[in-house]
Structures are given as C-alpha cells and as structure tokens.
Amino acid sequence: MTDLIPIGRFSRMTRLSIKALRFYDEQGMLKPLRVDPSSGYRFYSRVQANRAEAIRILRSTGMPIDEIREVLAEDDPELTGKRLDMHRERLLERLAEQERMLRFLERLIDRGEGVMPYHVTVKQVEPRFVAALRLRISLATAGADVQRGFGTLVQAVTAAGAGPTCKPFVIHHDVVDEQTDGDIEICIPVKPGTAFPDGPVRATEIPGGQVAATVHRGPYAEISPAYHYVTGWIQEQGHQHAGPPREIYLNDPQSVTQDDLLTEVQFPIGYA
C-alpha cells in the first residue's frame, strides 16, 4: 500500500506526538491503518490527517476524551452539531469566567493595599455531625472536583434518608496551587447517628471551637482576599491557627447570581 505513512512522519504531519498517537489508538479514536505484526510499528493514511486534526483542536479547547470519541463516532451531522454547540457554550462560559477574573485582578492591582476590606468576627461554633467525602484535588480541576464531590454526597445522603441539617461546607486540609495537589473534605451536616454503607462517604463529627470568620460576597474564584484578610487579622490579634480553614456556603449557586454568592470563611483559632 503506497499510502502508508510511518508513525513518525504522521506525527510531524499532524503535530501530534507519537505518545499522543499511541494514546488515541488505545482510546479507539485514531486507529492506525496498519500495524506491522512482527515489529508492532504503526502506519497511518493521509486521509486520517483530518481526523487527527479534529482531535488535536478539540483537545486544545478542553473537550474531554469521552466526548471527542462520541463526536467522531456520530454519523448524524445534526447530532454532531448539537454536541459541538454544547461544547461551544461551555467555552463561552469559560471565557466569561476568565474575563471576570481579569476584572477582579484589575481591582486588586488598583487597590493600594491589595486586599479588599472584610469584617472579622470571633465566635464559638458547635461540633457538627456530617456526611463527609475526602478528595485529593489539583488547582486545575478544583471546581469540577468539588461539584462532583457534592453530587456524590447528596446521593449518599438521599439514599440514607437523611436531609441536611445545616449549610454544607468544605474543609481545606492542604494548600492547593499550580505546583501542589492537596486534600479537601466536603461535608453536609446530617442528624447524629446517620450511617452510610461502605464507600467513599463516611459519617463523622467535625469538632467545634472558636473561629475567626468573615463573609465573602461574590464568585467562589474571587475568595482568596478573604483568606488574606482573616489570616492577617489573626496574626495582628495575637491568635494562632488551630486547624484547617472551612468554607461554609450560605446560599445556593443555582438560585442566586455569582455576584450574590455568600461564603463564610472560618479559621479555627487559639491563643498564642
């Protein structure tokens, strides 16, 4: 077959690495036209370049592998168009979020102190019996991980016949940044004694105690200044940190705009 193209040349032609081509082969998305039975060497056809380019572009725009596989497998142009329209909406939402973050950055830079003003209060919080799910997350996937985690928790709580008794919250056990993954614990308060079968969701009690707290109004992605302010206040007042911080979600993101989201940031404290 004269149209056979070795994987190295096909890689240069499509701007997909050999490693990526092997991965897409394993995923059933871009199979070689021929594999040498003795050497295992892969050969492609020139007509496969368009499919490779579609995969490269869709991956560069962040479409998940499973969705790309479905798009490429569709024989119905109308269904393919609908899937691409859904991805287009997702990209527009992402663009709007990035533009919002740029405006937020401009406000931070314009303010001489670099941190927006917050009011800090000290209060005693009671222990909470909760359904909890501990996750290892990265900065890049934090939002999606938390959303999926809450979905898992809600399913478990519903299956146990136990409605929430208070606002949900997340405990940040580690600092998560571009270089470092870390643990969070997603919690939904439930009645004491609520039990869950073996699985990722467990019943536990979160200890109470004294906390320094403030309320952030606005998107979750813009909450960092609240952390800056409270930690600075704790140091100025001579307190010491006594546990990982918590974010309590005071209203439902499905029922209010991002600008009206209310999140209470709590730092357990003690005296130095």
From TrEMBL:
InterPro entries: AraC_E-bd, DNA-bd_dom_put_sf, GyrI-like, MerR-type_HTH_dom, MerR_fam, Reg_factor_effector_dom_sf. PROSITE patterns: HTH_MERR_1 (PS00552), HTH_MERR_2 (PS50937). Gene3D superfamilies: 1.10.1660.10, Regulatory factor, effector binding domain. SMART domains: AraC_E_bind, HTH_MERR. Keywords: DNA-binding. Coiled coil: none annotated. Residues 4-74 form the HTH merR-type domain. One of its GO terms (molecular function) is DNA-binding transcription factor activity. Pfam families: GyrI-like (PF06445), MerR_1 (PF13411). This is MerR family transcriptional regulator. It comes from Actinoplanes aureus.
